[in-house]
Write a structure and sequence with these properties.
Mean pLDDT: 92
Distance between the termini: 57 Å
Strand order of the largest sheet: 1-17-2-16-15-3-8-10-9-14
Number of strands: 24
Number of domains: 2
CATH superfamily of the largest domain: Vaccinia Virus protein VP39
Strand content: 25-35%
Bound molecules: S-adenosylmethionine
Length: 441
């Protein structure tokens, strides 16, 4: 690490070489739409490597088409991020180890990390529209090195702001000031970028009115204030333990942070992207504010979390997977029981579940034993999302009915008029992000 300053040119050139190669040969027909939720449309959630996905977007006409990119990559924290799966009825806790939601460890250290992020940024620049902007979310681990690299990729003159996002949560050390901020490096593609000034409250001294001529003053429960242009230090709470936003995904960012970005640099209908989407925060905020989105993550638990979050919001989207991203470890038993008579419905119910190779889940031994019990008696606790496509075309599931796990649990039976069931498929996603598609044939 100590010679990293002198290696920056070499790191940059290596990224450029890979960039040229990826642009020529990357992408290809390796992405497949596996589910079209509520009609799909242009919104897309992709499970796969973001470099290949961006190359594919560039090949398929998306160069210069994205209005805003939010990039929240690993920070070079040298940590693994896990998801805890709580199995309610068992009062136990399955702690996954496959688990890492994702790893932020780099075999060749900072040089490897910087080369990867530099390469991703080069592709993102090509995808940005002329009026577009990018926010790169980092912290003290690497923001200083990446500032130098981003100046080179986007052009020093296109650097707009260093935003400090400050929060209260998290621990503190006895040997440092408590580390309570992240950094967002904000760049534009060109000087014609779209920007809408936001305002914030600025409380008067002593909270009393100034009564200056021509200055509008307001009052709230704290006291008197004026409205000023928003500053580059943002105090926004992290997603707390009891927050309704909380998905359980490590590193989840607050919707309020993304909302502020979207309000500042996008308009309704704009296309926004997040190629390190984690739990899908950007997608959720786009859905709530009328923007379109492209999301990507290479972690199965991340994509499962984001998909479920978007389904719960009723957000139309395509779920796309890179070839080889899925596995066939999960098996689910399904029953289709016809209810003759007045209703003439078919009740479709999930009746059991097992794993081809439970050890591949990466759970430690203690929890593996617990998993056995859960699979036998409480298999429903392992189901996060399931849906029914009454007329499956063998490629893409188009859900007609669906269920997501919430605090109360999940329904494991749904019914449909029998005459609608032409070629039924039942798709199930478990708490680990594994998928299974049941078809009658
Ligand atoms: C800091 S988290 C993002 C959290 C997200 N902003 C949220 O609100 O939940 C970084 C994410 O980048 C993903 N990631 C890392 N490298 C990737 C790659 N090459 N392709 C796609 N996703 C990647 C990780 O799986 C992880 O979910």
């Amino acid at each position: 690490m100590k010679d990293i300053l002198f290696r920056l040119p070499e790191i940059y050139r290596a990224a450029e070489e890979r960039y040229n190669e990826i642009k020529e040969t990357g992408g290809g027909d390796v992405f497949r739409t596996v589910e079209t939720f509520a009609g799909g449309g242009e919104n897309c959630l992709v499970r796969g490597d973001n470099l290949r996905y961006m190359a594919e977007l560039l090949r398929s006409g998306y160069a210069g088409k994205i209005d805003m990119i939010y990039a929240d990559p690993p920070f070079f924290s040298k940590s693994d991020y896990t998801i805890n799966v709580k199995v309610g009825k068992q009062k136990g806790k399955l702690t996954l180890a496959r688990n890492h939601a994702f790893t932020d460890r780099w075999k060749d250290g900072m040089a490897e990390y910087l080369e990867n992020i530099a390469l991703a940024m080069m592709l993102m620049k090509d995808l940005l529209s002329e009026t577009g902007t990018i926010f790169v979310h980092l912290d003290w681990h690497s923001s200083h090195y990446l500032k130098v690299i981003l100046d080179q990729v986007f052009g020093e003159k296109n650097f707009i702001n260093e935003i400090v996002w400050t929060y209260k949560s998290g621990g503190a050390s006895k040997r440092t000031f408590a580390r309570k901020h992240d950094v967002l490096l904000f760049y534009a593609k060109s000087k014609g970028y779209y920007f809408q000034v936001q305002e914030e409250k600025s409380y008067n001294r002593d909270l009393k009115p100034y009564r200056f001529k021509g200055v509008r003053e307001y009052r709230d429960e704290i006291g008197w204030y004026t409205l000023v242009s928003m500053k580059d230090v943002w105090q926004i709470d992290m997603v707390g333990r009891t927050s309704s936003e909380r998905t359980g995904y490590a590193t989840q960012k607050p919707e309020a942070l993304l909302k502020r970005i979207l309000d500042s640099v996008t308009r309704e209908g704009d296309l926004c992207a997040d190629f390190y989407c984690g739990s899908g925060t950007l997608g959720a905020v786009c859905e709530k504010t009328g923007r379109r989105y492209l999301l990507c993550d290479n972690s199965a638990p991340a994509v499962m979390t984001a998909h479920k979050r978007l389904v719960q919001l009723g957000s139309p989207h395509e779920l796309t997977e890179e070839e080889g991203a899925g596995d066939d470890n999960l098996h689910v038993q399904v029953s289709l029981d016809k209810m003759e008579g007045v209703l003439d419905n078919t009740v479709i119910s999930l009746t059991g579940l097992n794993y081809g190779d439970p050890e591949a889940l990466g759970i430690d031994e203690k929890n593996l034993a617990l998993l056995d019990t859960v699979v036998e008696y409480h298999y429903d606790e392992l189901i996060e999302y399931w849906c029914i496509d009454p007329d499956y075309d063998g490629r893409t599931v188009r859900p007609k009915l669906w269920r997501c796990r919430d605090k109360k649990g999940i329904d494991i039976a749904m019914n449909l008029p029998s005459k609608q069931l032409k070629n039924p498929a039942v798709k199930v996603i478990d708490v680990f992000g594994n998928e299974y598609i049941y078809t009658k044939t």
